[in-house]
Write a structure and sequence with these properties.
Blueprint lengths: L3 H4 L39 H10 L1 H15 L2 E2 L6 E2 L7 E3 L1 H25 L4 H4 L16 H4 L10 E2 L2 E4 L5 E5 L8 H11 L13 H12 L4 E4 L8 H11 L3 E2 L4 E4 L2 E4 L8 E4 L15 H12 L3 E3 L5 H4 L1 H4 L2 H9 L10 E3 L3 H8 L6 E4 L9 E2 L5 H13 L4 E4 L6 E6 L2 E6 L3 E5 L2 E10 L15 E7 L3
Parallel strand pairs: 3-21, 7-8, 7-11, 11-12
Antiparallel strand pairs: 1-2, 4-19, 5-6, 9-10, 13-16, 14-15, 14-16, 17-18, 19-20, 20-21
């Protein structure tokens, strides 16, 4: 892939004064548009980018990018579900000041979630103080007694990939925290390598590939590391291969590793393994039956002896639990003595009687999520659900209230996207990455491919946009 710097033309200037929203460009549902004001005028951060796109022709740029996606084999999914990732020609652009606000808010939030995980497996101060319910960890599959007995391995949340949305008022909000095995980093790097060279004359965004490589290598601290994720059906197989190339860490499966007297080694040559970046589906030491999983059997003794460190650590799921999400703003105030710099989408813990009663009065207005769900599975959109679906939802909540949370629906912002050679608004979210406690100038903005659609998840057909952070 061509590097951004070599492909750019610093001396090439684009006339941007005439850039406006195309005729008929109308965001749906009163959504905030990322690039255009309500009167059609372009937002300042987008003027040069859209000027460059118009100069190069949106259709031509889109076709060029699609051809490169096919040539490079950039796919999401596995086996029969594998599909080329749709990479749009219009990047999502943040000016330096707005990104700095996002940076401060996300770094504060991840710092607090790190403290909460330590507290959950330690003193339980937030529980005793009533900041979170005492039963918050009940039936939480990621709370395991084994984890509490492990030696301190340093930062537990090595990589966080929260889902960020912008509401109709223009405020950026956290929709989900994603601190177990966040994905899409490689796709973000790939989008940059395809989109930036196709827009000569646009302002150069902050570089991303070297920033990601440096941050990941710092996590290992010079110790022998592997990426654990070589398993059948891994839907981010392409991403893991790229991360292995980027870091130089071998991509392995469970069967490629062995426990040798409390030390983890590679079977093929007995080479020591000191850091495991866990990118597989299994993220618990024990299954529901209380027996060690295959991964738990492999790692439990090396973990107990302190011979290996796992990224992200076992137990981080207690912070990723959607029931915990409801209380993150309280946790910020408790642990930091500060107001949250980045708010959550308002949410209800349905295990709490009063909150459940409030939410059930608004079944047809709120979004309901299984507390341990991922990838958009199991979500019920109240405003779009039928009477029958709402009746089933009510019964499911009554049967297991602690298995659900509710969230206020958010009208996702829209973003100009190339459709049939022209620009049309499509709903978007943002997946940034906090690595080692620092927000990188890296992200993928997922977009829904259908007009008015709100499903942006790549596993369910959403595409990706490069994210540009402009320098000051």
């Amino acid at each position: 892939m061509t590097s951004v710097l070599s492909a750019a033309r610093p001396g090439y200037h684009v006339q941007v004064t005439a850039v406006r929203a195309p005729a008929g460009y109308t965001p749906t549902g009163g959504a905030f548009d990322e690039a255009f004001h309500a009167d059609g005028a372009v937002r300042r951060a987008y003027a040069a980018v859209l000027g460059a796109l118009n100069a190069a022709s949106p259709a031509t740029v889109a076709d060029t990018i699609a051809a490169h996606v096919q040539h490079e084999g950039i796919v999401h999914g596995a086996d029969a579900d594998a599909h080329p990732l749709a990479v749009d020609a219009v990047p999502r652009v943040f000016d330096a000041d707005e990104w700095a606000l996002l940076e401060a808010g996300l770094e504060q939030r991840v710092r607090v979630l790190e403290l909460f995980v330590a507290d959950a497996f330690g003193a339980r101060e937030a529980f005793r103080a009533g900041v979170v319910p005492e039963d918050l960890l009940d039936r939480n599959p990621w709370f395991e007694d084994d984890v509490a007995g492990l030696p301190d391995g340093g930062r537990r949340i090595a990589v966080a990939g929260p889902d960020i949305v912008r509401d109709a008022r223009g405020e950026l909000l956290v929709l989900e925290d994603n601190v177990r095995t966040p994905t899409l980093m490689s796709f973000a790097v790939a989008a940059r390598s395809l989109v930036a060279p196709a827009l000569p004359g646009a302002p150069l965004p902050r570089p991303v590939e070297e920033a990601l490589r440096t941050a990941l290598l710092e996590l290992a601290g010079g110790r022998a590391a592997v990426i654990l994720g070589r398993e059948p059906g891994n839907i981010v197989w392409w991403e893991l291969e790229q991360l292995s190339r980027l870091t130089g860490w071998p991509l392995v499966g469970i069967d490629d590793l062995a426990d040798r007297d409390g030390r983890l080694v590679r079977r093929e040559d007995d080479a020591p393994v000191e850091v495991v970046w866990r990118r597989c589906d299994e993220d618990r030491l024990r299954g529901d039956d209380g027996r060690l999983t295959a991964l738990g059997s492999l790692l439990i003794e090396p973990l107990r002896s302190g011979a290996v460190r796992v990224l992200n650590a076992f137990g981080t799921g207690v912070a990723d639990d959607k029931r915990t999400y409801v209380y993150v703003e309280r946790l910020v105030r408790f642990f930091c003595g500060e107001e949250p710099l980045l708010r959550s989408v308002p949410a209800w813990d349905l295990a709490a009687d009063e909150q459940r009663a409030d939410a059930q009065e608004r079944l047809d207005e709120l979004v309901f999520k299984p507390r341990d769900g991922s990838g958009g599975e199991g979500i019920v959109l109240g405003p779009r659900a039928s009477r029958s679906e709402l009746s089933k939802l009510r019964a499911a909540i009554d049967a297991a209230p602690d298995a659900w949370i509710a969230q206020e629906p958010v009208t996702l912002s829209t973003h100009p996207t190339v459709v049939d050679g022209g620009l049309q608004p499509r709903h978007v979210d943002l997946r940034p990455f906090v690595v080692g406690g620092r927000l990188l100038p890296l992200g993928l903005s997922r977009f829904a491919q259908g007009a008015g659609d709100l499903v942006v998840n790549c596993a369910q057909g959403g595409g990706g946009k490069d994210v540009w952070v402009l320098p000051r």
